[in-house]
Amino acid sequence: MTTTKDAHKSKLIGTSPVRPDGAGKVTGEAIFAADVSLPGMLHGKILRSPHAHARIKSIDASEALKLPGVRAIATHQDFPPIPSNLKVDSGEYMTLRDLRDRVLASNKVLFKGHPVAGIVADNAHIAEEAMAKIKVEYEVLKSVTDVRTALKKDAPVLHDKLNSISRNSKLEQVSPNGLIIKADSGNVEQGFKECDVVIEREFTTQTVHQGYIEPQATVVDYLSDGSIVCHSCTQGTFRYREHISDILQIPQHKIKIVPTEIGGGFGGKEVAYLEPIAAILSKKTQRPVKIVMSRADVFQGTGPASGSWMKVKIGAKKDGKLHAAQMTLAYEGGAWPGSPVSGGASIGLGRYNIPNQLIEGYDVVLNKPATQPYRAPGATQIHFATETIIDEIAEKLGIDPVEFRMINTVREGDRNVQGVPFQRIGSTQVLEAIKNSEHYKSPLGGPNRGRGFAFGFWRGGGGQSSCNISVHPDGTVSMLEGSPDLSGTRTAIAMIAADTLGIPLTNVKIAVGDTDSVGYSMGSWGSRTTFATGLASYEAATDLNKKMTARAAKIWETTPDNVENSDGEFRHKSDSALKITFAHLAEKLNSTGGPIMGYGLVDPARGVGACFCANLVDVEVDPETGKVTILRFTTAQDVGRAIHKALVEGQMQGGVVQGIGWALNEEYVFDQNGNMSNPTFLDYRMPVALDVPMIESIVVEVFNPSHPYGVRGVGEDSITTPPGAIANAIYRATGVRMEKLPMSPTNIMEAMNKQKGRKN
Predict the structure, then answer these.
(1) 217-222/228-232 β-pairing
(2) What is the CA radius of gyration of the chain?
(3) Of the residues 342, 453, 524, 679, which has the maximum number of CB atoms within 10 A of its CB?
(4) 405 and 499 share a domain?
(5) Which residues have CB under 8 Å from 406's CB, separation 6+?
(6) What are 417-438's pLDDT values in tens digits?
(7) Looking at the predicted structure, is the pLDDT value of residue 73 above 60?
């Protein structure tokens, strides 16, 4: 562990106290969305398209509505009319009509599993039976599920005109199904001429799912006054409110989102799939409606991570300096534009100094569900490609792979791809941590074994967050914050407040507020929660501390600047005999002026703190079957400062495990008609405990000067590097450079046989 001198000493920060939400989750007392039950509640089901691409000619629900216990049906005709070009003001790439059509298809279905109708009944079994009685007439169209095929001029056309509603104005349509973004610096053509080693390869990655344990679920109550209350498992309560408001054309103040506990998300629970349908059904029946997805619904009807095709060319000089790079990236957007290709373009080589670069990125629509972020969206795909080539260049130059990265990595003061200089960063410290690790120094030994290394980068995230803190007469405090807790962030946020106030963590009761009880907060994504909402917690605690200090000054008849809070005890600076604990001062609040609350409202746009990580992995490859066994795995990551050490390590390890799944097993399998063949956990192969070793975590702490506690984002960087590290290890075990994910036994044997054919 490396800690910089900026970090102030604390008895709490950097420890691993018990999580306040732990007991409820262990005992089953915690309430998830599917656990919510309201009086008179009905149960809904979603009818989904059996076709990947088809026109909807008619929908007949008459027979379904005759079934006893069936209460109502919802189709796209129940939505209010919306202008086709109206933009979505909630971070989406779609127009509002596109967003609405994702919830319920109108004239066309664009992927198997596309919702067509919702139905509600007295119980889920009746709703299931009724769903089968809804008759939909389709005109089946040719579908496309391969990103390169979708870019061809003669590919099936999904939309008459693509909407380039994007946070990046450089997107332009280049084919019936593709938008392009370009970026360049220096002179790439001349740069490659000046290189001594140039490597060019093509790579493909498949569609993968976030694999959260809890399926999407909601309970929606449309009240008699026209307001809506939604109990949902969501990563972003305020985004859900915006989506429902936009789709149903209801003012946001009439919609309340109540976040429940959430059983994983990883980026997949950022958009409202069920709530608008449930709201329509609740309005029609005047009763609460619950809808819970099945696992097949989750796989086929929610947003996975992009599959991709990438062509990458990188060159270096014989002194070991990278000098030129060119990348062509085609990422799946699913049925609508919105792939993370811009993230892949900006992140792909962001950890290296390369003076000459040219990047073309294609955002491609095809007959799959609209993609959603999956932990560092866009980064894992391109890191797999670039780290494979970087490793090959290092080998050809005869330079140690870690040392080669050390030569080329960015440092403080270097400019990122947007031209902004890096502040203090931990790039070299992470590399040094790997070089100094026992794993790096240990012998590998044994046949068919290889050791691989990869280096990763994520930009971190900021954005708006809110928090408020109230004081109780017994000296405890209650906190409300606006970012849903996916990974224990409530604990870290409470620790920051407790440390700032100088009170025990057990005296802080924290909850995630609904949209009516806490100020606007962006969702829990982008490695922003502990950074931004932790900053709001600090600001709220600081505000509260000032008010408590003023109250103590009032009691002692002095000025606030003559009072200080030292570890939870307020002291008179001029009279050492005057002291009062936080708890005793809290007792006197009502008698000396009334209750006190602290508020934190932040919007950190800069200084979020770039994140760096590195992986070292040992594998053994069975030469007869191609099966990869991971023998040892070490991950190092600069976290700025670990607030809750065990949670930080858990984030690092969790990202690695997901990266292992992405590398070796996971993929959507489609047949020729665009039907997903493996929409359950029985067939979609995710890693289990027996598939991974104990993951050794090295927590590197390089204080982020833009945060009072030095925090950097932790949640996403850890998934960027495992595929590249494992690919490089497989190469050293087999002599084969893998260019396709997943690196399954079948794909490895195919690559090995192909290489043998070339040698023969």
Answers:
(1) antiparallel
(2) 27
(3) 524
(4) no
(5) 428, 431, 432
(6) 777 899 999 999 999 999 999 9
(7) yes
DSSP run (H or E) holding 96: helix 96-103
pLDDT at 608: 83
Residue 125, pLDDT above cutoff 70? yes
Up-side HSE of residue 616: CA atoms within 13 Å toward CB? 22
- Domain identity same for 452 and 568: no
662 belongs to a structural domain: yes
Q: Is 88's pLDDT higher than 90?
A: no
pLDDT value of residue 14: 96
pTM beyond 0.85: yes
pLDDT at 2: 54
**Of 161 and 62, which is predicted with more confidence?**
62
Contacts 24+ apart (CB under 8 A), 745-750: 745/622, 745/625, 745/626, 745/627, 745/628, 746/626, 747/626, 748/621, 748/626, 748/628, 749/625, 749/626
Confidence (pLDDT) at 166: 47
Of residues 759 and 312, more confidence is placed in 312
In single-letter form, the type of residue at position 700 comes to V
Tally of domains in the chain: 3
DSSP assignments along 362-400, one per residue: EEEE-SSPPP---SSTTHHHHHHHHHHHHHHHHHHHT--
| Residues 81, 68 share a domain | yes
- Both 371 and 454 in one domain: the answer is yes
| Pair (503, 623) in one structural domain | no
The backbone torsions φ and ψ at residue 549, rounded to the nearest 5 degrees and listed phi first, read: -60, -45
Cα–Cα dist 237/234, whole Å: 6
What is each CA distance from 587 to 208, 488, 540, 577, 579, in whole angstroms?
55, 31, 20, 20, 14
CA distance 576 to 90: 54
Mark whether 448 and 523 lie in a shared domain. Answer: no
Among 574, 602, 630, identify where a domain stops: 602
CA distances from 552 to 472, 503, 698 (A): 16, 16, 44
Structure tokens at 194: 């000046």
- 117 token code pair: 């109708």
- 413 shares its domain with 294: no
Q: Which tokens sit at 248?
A: 């149903």
Instruction: Verify that 103 and 241 share a domain, yes or no.
Output: yes
Q: Which domain holds residue 501?
A: 462-602
Q: Tell whether the model's pLDDT for residue 168 goes beyond 80.
A: no
Considering the domain boundaries, does residue 642 fall inside one? Answer: yes
